[in-house]
Design brief:
Layout lengths: L4 E7 L3 E7 L5 E8 L6 H19 L6 E8 L2 E3 L4 E5 L4 E5 H6 L6 E5 H13 L7 E6 L3 E7 L2 E3 L13 E2 L11 E2 H5 L1 H13 L6 H4 L8 H9 L3 H25 L3 E5 L1 H21 L2 H4 L3 E4 L6 H13 L2
Parallel strand pairs: 1-4, 4-8, 9-14, 14-15
Antiparallel strand pairs: 1-2, 2-3, 5-6, 6-7, 9-10, 10-11, 12-13
């Protein structure tokens, strides 16, 4: 018999977002903490446990009333062993995070790549388990992907499938072995912000100088406000990111012949209406017409909640 609740923890490059969900598939409480990745994996685990305990306390839930704790990690993860192969944005390599968390948790701990977890949530709750061949792409601190083939999550032979952020690209956004950078190094929010900051240091004027205090991180909401104010520096680099994203997605569609692309992540959530037409335009230029004409590019309606709901699907898969 299934326990009534699960906890999902979405471990990101900038925040740890945890939630407890009930048997009606509803989020009943959330906890958000900043990700402290500068002091090592053990400190991250300590913060994860802290967020779990806070959820239990706030909802009056005992661990024995949980079905599972599910964790999404921004990197390559083996769900069977719980080992993070490489999570560059967290500076973690070859670390068994499942074993570390399980020391403090009485119920099963399940581990998955964060965008795979989001993909599972989108597939089950947004598309009612009807996605056939799809690519889910989240743009944030980095860029991650999840692949769904014939209605099932495809993790690859060694659990590296979907790592599109590390594809080599050239300055035109074309997939290229001779590319000097990776997809996420030139199109993620991190990359966009670095380019904006470089222009501001050169003397270009941007409303971000007033919106964001000196030394503070530029977040997606600030980028959104800047675009609404038609800030030339910000729109230039957001437009460039859209061009590169569309180009890469077009090439991948030519290879995979998918029928749906679902976009998410902080930047897309904040600027989706502005970015989508530009991504679609670039996509149309790079994809072969035949596979391209059947593809629908959508923005997830679940937003940051996608991986939280994905925990329910992960528990169903591994604890059936």
């Amino acid at each position: 018999m299934k326990a009534k609740k699960i906890i999902t923890v979405d471990l990101g490059g900038t925040k740890i977002l945890s939630a407890i969900l009930n048997s009606e598939n509803e989020i009943i409480e959330r906890v958000k903490l900043p990700t402290n990745y500068t002091n090592g994996a053990d400190v991250i685990v300590k913060d994860i446990i802290s967020s779990i305990n806070e959820l239990l306390s706030k909802t009056g839930t005992d661990q024995k009333d949980l079905r599972a704790v599910c964790l999404g990690v921004p990197g390559t993860v083996n769900p069977e062993t719980g080992i993070i192969g490489n999570a560059p944005n967290l500076k973690i390599k070859n670390y068994n995070i499942k074993r570390s968390i399980q020391k403090h948790i009485e119920v099963p701990v399940l581990i998955e790549n964060d965008v795979n977890l989001a993909g599972l949530g989108i597939k089950l709750f947004e598309y009612e388990d009807k996605l056939k061949n799809a690519l889910v792409v989240f743009v944030g601190t980095g860029i991650g992907g999840a692949l769904i083939f014939n209605g099932k999550m495809y993790r690859g032979s060694s659990f590296y499938a979907g790592e599109i952020g590390h594809i080599k690209v050239n300055d035109k956004g074309e997939i290229s072995a001779n590319g000097k950078a990776t997809f996420e190094q030139i199109a993620s929010r991190t990359a966009v912000v670095k380019s904006i900051q470089k222009d501001i240091k050169k003397g270009e004027t941007s409303v971000l100088s007033k919106l964001v205090p000196k030394g503070k991180r530029i977040k997606s909401k600030a980028l959104q406000t800047s675009v609404k104010k038609r800030d030339k520096v910000v729109t230039k680099h957001i437009n460039n990111s859209c061009r590169i994203i569309g180009s890469v997605l077009g090439s991948l569609t030519t290879l995979l012949n998918i029928d749906t692309i679902v976009l998410g992540g902080g930047v897309v959530e904040a600027l989706g209406d502005y970015m989508l037409p530009k991504i679609e335009k670039s996509f149309a230029k790079s994809v072969l017409p035949e596979p391209g004409k059947i593809v629908k590019i959508k923005i997830t309606k679940l937003g940051d909640d996608a991986p939280l709901f994905g925990g329910l699907a992960l528990a169903d898969e591994f604890l059936a």
